[in-house]
Amino acid sequence: MELIDGKATAAQIKEEIAAKVRERAAEGKKIPHLAAILVGHDGGSESYVANKIKACEACGFRSSLIRFESTGQNPLNPEELFAAIDKLNKDPEVDGFIVQLPLPKHIDDQKVIEAIDPDKDVDGFHPVNVGRASLGLPAFHSATPAGIVELLKRNGIETAGKNVVIIGRSNIVGRPLASMLMHKGADATVTVCHSATRNLADITRRADIIVAALGRPGFVTEDMVADGAVIVDVGTTRVPDQSRKSGFRLCGDVDFEKVAPKCSRITPVPGGVGPMTIASLMLNTLEACRRREATAR
Ligand code: NAP
Fold it and tell me: Among 179, 186, 188, which Cα is nearest to 133's?
């Protein structure tokens, strides 16, 4: 078994981006600028946004963070959030921005996603980008699936003609990943499974590549995996762990210890898909900056 090192692959992508940004600076071109909106103090969201800002620094991007407080007693008025989105949509200095999800329950995630200008939607969640991507047209691709496709490509894992089984059909992972992998170029035969799938293990045992994206720690066990399969573990669940300073550890959807001896390649958690999601976001931001430049000419 060989590990698929997402951290190293993402570091290489960020170095390539940083080199392009240095070239842009030398040519007097605009430095890409990513903004992030963070509502409340969810631990996971805080750490994702901090990592995105750190990645901006590594790539030589500008970044800005807009924070809103929201508590049970004092919930954020959604109009304030929509006003901030409108301002970022119109700000010529900002090339792309994200609104970190999940939002507090009283705010409709989908309405928020649809309020973002599709040309600045570097998360690739807006229906315009999702639709264009599913038709194979130029679009911002959803960061996690785009990161998975790039991770496989850069690590020499062929998808053409392979049986890929994706567990999970969410709008941000399973569904767009299925679409990307079945497009010409990727050419995989894709099966998408979900909570109503029957005989899941029979399906996963026929897979050359399994992508686990369901958010259930240790769900994929060795009996579900064919000898020599490639395993991509998207899951990142915080499981309480008093032996850690943070009080938790990140768990993937795959029982790593048991599955690793059986498969040929496997992504670790952490250090697999997570860093690639951020690298994709950086690639989308660079692309947004280039596109804005091209349309301004
Ligand atoms: P989600 O929206 O909750 O979707 C979970 C999917 O898994 C649903 O389609 C659900 O089926 C399916 N599912 C749940 N239980 C199942 C079961 N027993 N058998 C088969 N399918 C089952 O989750 P998500 O947002 O896609 O996230 C999935 C995981 O990936 C989470 O751990 C999340 O933290 C992680 N994640 C990681 C990154 C990263 O960058 N590393 C990015 C995004 C997400 P139904 O549709 O039938 O309910």
Answer: 179
